[in-house]
Amino acid sequence: MATQKKTAEADYSMQEKILALYELQKIDSKIDEINKVKGELPLEVQDLEDDMTGLRTRIDNIAGEIEELNALTKQRRREVDQAKIQIGNYKEQQNNVRNNREFDAITKEIEYQELEIELAEKRLKEYSAGVKAKKLQLEEAEQAAAERSADLEAKKAELTGIEAETAPLIAEYEAQEARAKEKIDERLLAAYDRIRRNVRNGLAVVTVRRDACGGCFNRIPPQRQSDIRQGKKIIICEYCGRILVADPETETQE
User: Fold this and answer.
1) 234, exposed or middle or buried, with CB in 10 Å at 0-12, 13-18, 19+?
2) Cα(21)–Cα(193) distance, integer angstroms
3) pLDDT tens, 227-253?
4) Are 138 and 35 in contact (CB under 8 A)?
5) What is the sign, positive or negative, of the torsion defined by CA atoms of 117, 119, 123, 126?
């Protein structure tokens, strides 16, 4: 029978998996170095995009408030015009009254309409002041949006340039990364990713050098170093939680 193709889940030895983890760490560290070139640019772009979203919402809200005030202004002006027409009609009726009672009743209606006009004109002044204030706010928001937009375009262009320059190298490293991952089972990969997220420099796999952990530099006992060199099981640093491996280069030289 032909030999079966090795699978990450069953056929790779633990030593092969550990070596693959070490290779994966080296590749990920190279990708991390490339990402450092971007610095804070991705976060700055995201922050500016969030600012732009907030400013657009603010601009829309202010524009809606101005539109509402303009609609109220038109409504009050119609009410003033109607009240003036009513007053004109009542004054004509006063010329044809038969007694003082009718005259007094019409006079009260005229006074009521005049009060309505006075109130409406007061509201119109408030609306006018409101529109003026809102237009000032709108102008400030639009100016801020224009400035943020210019900053955003500049940051995006800078980030795009870096990404375009590093894309081929990233693609090559990602292909290497995929090949390394083929030899590692999902449980081990999950542990590797978890450790990488929890350590400051992204080093989840470190070598033992000068009898110490390459991550936290605490001393590793001789027996534990022997277990690490044998590569029969995953050894975790009891101080920092990183995966410990023997340095392949040192082992080859020995």
Assistant:
1) middle
2) 11
3) 999 989 999 999 999 999 998 766 544
4) no
5) positive
